[in-house]
Give the backbone structure.
Amino acid sequence: MPEHREEPWFFDKDRAALLVIDMQKDFVDECAIMEVAMARHRIPAMRRVINACRVAGVPVIYTRHVLSDRFEVSPLETAYQPKLKVTGMREGSEGIEIVPELIPLPNETVITKHRYDAFHDTQLETVLRNIRGAGQVDTVIIIGTVTSICCESTARGAFMRDYK
């Protein structure tokens, strides 16, 4: 007979990965095209989470939202925010780089995404399924910006793929 638990699952650091969502200059820097001022204020807390995960051996995976000058990779996003048709989060620009305070280590993965959900048409699922050995990651910790858009979309994407 299976053991009854009050909680639906428990946290096992050996089966987890940390996702750092879109902490890039075009979102975080003061006066940036897509500035989210609160993201700057959360950097110290995020740095503590990242460092704790690194110490605990939890893989840290970064995402960055990138748009193209060659064609619209996210046409509805640019329709709602026309300025993004010509500026902000452009391929090859400094604005897509992760802020220096949270810079990835050389061995950490950075996933380029073009939509709010970091799973949509990216390598994220493949990376998660293999970064600790085949099928080992079953839990994602999500930090970053923008909580109500990219973080939430990625969390929903993770849930739909049965990640805790």
Summary: The chain has a mean pLDDT of 91. Helices lie at 25-28, 37-41, 43-56, 75-80, 124-130, 147-160. The longest helix spans residues 43-56. The radius of gyration is 16 Å.
